[in-house]
Here is the input.
Amino acid sequence: MATLEHEGNVLGQLTYGHTTTLWRINLGWRRRRQRDQYGFVLDKERGYWARNDQVIDEDEQNPDPLSARVVRVIPYVEDRRNCLLLEPAGAFSDR
Here is the structure.
């Protein structure tokens, strides 16, 4: 760990992580219509990505057992890398 300073003012803190576990999470398209709906639609039976309009409401009971089974998923990848984390302090942390 280290403190980043300029003329006696603390600008932030640096933290180094040796072989840190990092996650990259894909919450969905940036230009999606419903900003509060995250992820993508996956057809579990065929293993293909489905269109968003194919999502079935979870509360809805579907009597047809041969219908497409789709779920909303949030894909992510996990990696191990060296990492340097910068945490701004003071006026920079409010932005």
